[in-house]
Amino acid sequence: MKLFAQQGFGTGEKVTKALENGYVHGTVISPKDYGKHQVKALFEKMSASYPSAERLFDPQFYVSLMAFGGNAKLGKLGTGEYEYFKGLQRRALESEEKIRQELKECLEEQKSLDVTALIAPNLIIPRSFNSIEGLIAKNFIRNTAEVWRQVGDERPVYATLAIEAEALQDTQELDEFLQDLTIMDDPPDGFYIIVVSPSSEITPELVDSRTLAGWMLLNHALMVNQFTVINGYTDILSPFLVAAGGTAGCTGWWNNTKVFSLNKFMPSMGGRQPVHRYLSLKLLNSIRFDELDRIRDYFPDILNHLETDLLYPHDEGSLPANKIDEVMQTWQSLSSLPITSGPEGLKECLNRVEEARLLYSQIDATPGLQLPARSNKSHLGGLEYGLTTFLQRAQIHLS
Amino acid sequence: MNKIPESELKILFPEFTDISELRSGGFKTVYRAVKASGELEALKVVAIPDAGKTSNEKAHHKEEIGRVIREISILGKSQSPHIVRLAKVPLTHKEYFGKDFVVYSEEFLDGGNLWDPIIDGEDKPSEIELRELLRDMLKAIKELHRLQVVHRDIKPLNIMKSGNSERPFILIDLGIAFSLQGTALTANAENRRPMATYRYISPEQCDPRNRANLDYRSDLYSLALTVFEYAAHEHPIAHDMDDFIQTVSRALNESPKALKDLRPDLSPEFCGLVDQLLKKRPALRPANLNMLIKKMEAS
Question: How many other C-beta atoms lie within 10 A of the C-beta of residue B269?
């Protein structure tokens, strides 16, 4: 399965190592965490060493409305080195001329980066597709290809589609939006989709079945219409989205690169370092290293039997030695999944949910091994119902 | 009286030496008209409902005239060989025994429609022929899209198989074509049944909420139904004895049969494409016409 590194704060060493090991197929870098010169250098290094890897830059233009308020935590985005980025009021974007100007400025600046495709700016569609923001977002998408033709080169251009999870839950509005999206006269080459979660924690809400069904339908409709679809911040949802038709999923090393939330642009409330987790493909979930250590002898199937399992040494209490280890294990595990786009991949996903349910029930039935919230099976209902709802809405009958 | 007798037509259109009826349906009758030179044209005579006295009757009268004018206007602009062409007789108003008619002519197309081989139980077509059919009709839909028009009545009866290798299949009868740019012709559209042949109606045509968003993907759906039925001699959804309500209900809710189950000899790629074009949600039908045409042109 095609997986990209969602690069957050860090030196880029992890991504280089993951590319070297073939755990990821590319990367998405965001300006909040990197200055312009650093981004340029990272892409150039990647291009020289791993020329076949895909290199994308998410301009994070969608924070512009938030930035206007003045209270956002913008990192390098707010230093002025990215000239396209500024605080904006929504009403400024109600003019098509202004939208074209923003597209032009952002794509022109991005053009100098050694990326394999460009990601055009857009804002976030909050709660409802049938909103002023929904209309503005469509305008950004409609103008993307033409503006890129005027200022750009041969590289493909992807439109950003940033949507609040709630908006995906209204089937009628999503259908109407999709109807417009798939019949543009001058469409972009693809889409970079991010779904905005209300929380930066990976919670069961992210796996709300209605959100997942809508997100999968979005991927499917865009695939049917020949678009490349890169899904940002997807972590364990990646196989489901790729099976539905997505080209790739992305995930990273912090929670805020596994799930997208605007919280990361808000002033920090402090907090502690996250505990190391292990992504178990058989559970379709990440569990804490100490939980893994407790269970692995009883249920060896909880391990993925990949080389990155060695990063969680049993004789050390399954605690990884380095910070980098967790993300290596996540990347290798997800990208090892034999998920293809289409019925076979969807069947594989359904089977894996079934297998996870079975394994969880065996664990739950063993005294002393039950897993607490976030590591338990509470996500499986959302995954299964999301998948079956999607199958029904897309009229896909798995034999 | 919905027809002008042939003898009267010969007087009204003396440029034709022979005029004989080909088919008739609703308010429209089509005649084979022969010129002295031997050249053939299809003379179309449309009976216009009386203007009547009520506002509804008057609106209906205006609507019918408007439809003929729109059809001729579209045909006049079309540059596709896969859409029937206008011939020499321009739009002409005729009154016969107090009844209004409009008359015009189209090119005479040799060959038959796609419905006859289905009901006659003839041999089912090969994949090569089906690909040609899909290709030509996609080109016709592409041209209609250029003209900002949705045909709304693509069905086996409205596709002619010409026997001409340059243009094997030709789309006819734009009588209820819908312009995406013009004003609506249908009076009280919200309260009326959708304009279409229900057996080939798309789900979005059935749903008044979606009619405002109608686009060429509705024609792609009807085309897929047509290709399926022509290929399998069986409709993927409709049942012959169903009434209007049942037919529309099936169009909205029932999953179509899979073409590969009825024609296992056809390639999975071709069957898959027809099945995909039959998705209820327009967004799930592939809409890139150039790509679809290219696929059908590839051997």
Answer: 10
Radius of gyration of chain B (CA): 20
Q: Could you give the 3-state DSSP secondary structure of residue A228?
A: strand
Supply the pLDDT for residue A273: 75
Which pLDDT value is given to residue B213? Answer: 78
Q: Which of A178, A179, A397 to mutate to test the interface with B (most CBs of B within 10 A)?
A: A179
pLDDT along chain A (399 residues), means of 10: 88 86 95 92 94 97 87 88 93 95 97 98 95 96 98 97 95 94 95 87 66 97 97 95 98 81 78 85 96 97 97 97 93 96 96 97 96 92 96 93
Its pTM stands at 0.90
Helix (H, G, I), strand (E, B) or coil at B167: coil
Looking at residue A158, the DSSP 8-state letter turns out to be: E
Using an 8 Å Cβ cutoff, are A236 and A282 in contact? no
How long is chain A? 399
Residues of chain B in Cβ contact (below 8 Å) with chain A: 213, 215, 217, 255, 276, 279-288, 291
Q: Which residue of B has its CA nearest to A225?
A: B286
Q: Do B236 and B259 touch, CB atoms closer than 8 A?
A: yes
Secondary-structure percent of chain B, ordered helix, strand, coil, rounded to 5: 40, 20, 40
ipTM of the complex: 0.85
Strand pairing class (B99-107; B149-150)? unpaired
Out of A179, A220, A397, the one facing B282 most closely (by C-beta) is: A179
Min Cα–Cα distance to chain B from A226, Å: 8
Distance of CA A165 to the CA centre of its chain: 13
Query: CA A346 to CA A130: how far, in whole Å?
Result: 30
Q: Cβ A183–B285 below 8 Å, yes or no? A: no
Read off the pLDDT of residues B222-247 as tens digits, 9 standing for 90 and up: 999 999 999 999 999 999 888 888 98
Say whether B38 sits in a helix, a strand or coil: coil
- Chain centre to alpha carbon of residue B38: 28
Instruction: Determine if residue B45 is left, alpha or beta; phi over 0 gives left, psi from -120 to 50 gives alpha, anything else beta.
Output: beta
Half-sphere exposure of A11 (CA within 13 A, CB side): 5
| Sign of the torsion formed by the C-alpha atoms of A45, A47, A48 and A51 | positive
Model pLDDT for residues B73-109, shown as the tens digit of each residue: 999 999 999 999 999 999 999 888 888 899 999 999 9
Q: Which helix (H) or strand (E) holds A215?
A: helix A209-224
Whose tokens are 């080389």? That residue is: A307
| DSSP reduced 3-state for B131 | helix
H helix intervals, A232-288: 238-244, 255-258
State what percent of residues in chain A have pLDDT above 70.
96
Distance CA A255, CA B263 (A): 51
C-alpha–C-alpha distance, residues A75 and A89, integer Å: 20
